[in-house]
Amino acid sequence: MDSLELALAIAASTLVGVPLAALALTSLRIHLRGRTTHGREADVIVVFGAAVRADLPSPELGARLRHAASLYQQGHARTILCSGGHPGPGSEARVMRSALVALGVPEQAILIEETGSSTRRTVEAVERLSHGRWRRILVVSSPYHLYRIEGEARRRGLPVAGSAPPATPLTTRLRPRVRAHLREVAAVWWYALTPRPRDRPTTPPGDPAPAGAPTDRLAVVVLSLANEPHLVDAVRSVLAQDPRPEVVVVNSAGGDPGSTLRAAGLDVPLVDVRERLLPGGARNRGIAATSAPLVAFLAADCIAEPGWAAARIAAHEAGADAVAGVLTPARPRTRSACASHLRLHHRARPEAPDDDRVLAMLSYRRELLERQGPFLEDVLVGEDTDYLDRLAPEHVVAVATGARTAHRYPLTVRALLVDQHRRGRAAVDHLLTQGDRRARLAVPRRNLANVGLALARARAVPEPEERRALLRATPLLLVGALACAL
Known about the structure:
By secondary structure, the chain is an alpha/beta fold. Helix content is 46%, strand content 17%. The strands form three sheets. The chain has an eight-stranded mixed sheet with strand order 10-9-8-11-14-13-15-12.
């Protein structure tokens, strides 16, 4: 065999052998992952749907439901989410709920979701329903299915762990088991190679947000720039608060937020300004468009977690003139998001010590806003800090750790670097406008020194899984600091 034939033989072996090895490795991972039958403590158990027959679960789905009911009764979570497509009276999700009730699970502990017609859509539904408040999600499905679910969840930054029944009808018979396993290998690679669709709205168009009891105490101004992609999610998170506050959206720099909100079934007041408003200008428009005695603000790339409004109202009623909230990452398992969160907001986290806390996401008494005057309208950053500096010593500023805002951060390394570089330039420009001639040196020095403080804060996070996720983002934390410094 000459050298050309040898090269061709090696190339052919590589072309055939590498894909076969990859498929074999995927098959092994699917098999090993499916052997997880135990559960862990979680905020919610998510049961993935399967076929139903004559308003009864199929044998395969029945095995999943019995396993989920057992996990619930063992105390692994207090809520079960049933996800299955084909909305209507006989949908998979409704049949699943009836079966769980028959197995002894209280109906009030069961949520249903009827858009999950595929694995990918079910994972998307879990993401939009969680709003960052489910920090441990236990997924239940057939053994061959867990590996694909967890892979798709990781790509969306969801904190999931899987648990499968010890045996299901498909896994106890050789031919159906092999057929399901091979189909799953193909599905895993299809999901890995095809880009996921763009994020859908938090709930299907026209489906109203869960409504809390209305209140006339608090107004929330949702701040949007050019009809931001997650505007609907932000508005829905406010409307879902209990008590439900007055809401107004302030949008500037174009887009068509009115059509976006109407398509999502949201009927809220809208202030739409053609030119771009800086944050202070948008805040001032929102204050003028609301009437409640307390005013809070939420950026359209954030989510108000459950209890956000109630915690603010309670702190104000206890005597606070201004109330700061706390910040958490909306994608708590995505490394780029965790790095950005630590870079920007580790001093606004729930467990930050009072002597090193940055006051962020503030709400104010309207009478204070009227007395102190408007926010600065000509600064890109720092309008909140400037307003705090203008308060008199007798004004009371409190921190409500229950007012948790889940912030969306960059999800890729490239987006992280671009965002950090932009923020570094904005910080320098802000200091230069204040007359600080050393800004070009002070900002890089401060940002690089901040890395050690952020790491120390990550190590102090009490929840083990969140702490590990933040510490895994350490390399990107340093890279982001360098991008900001440059």
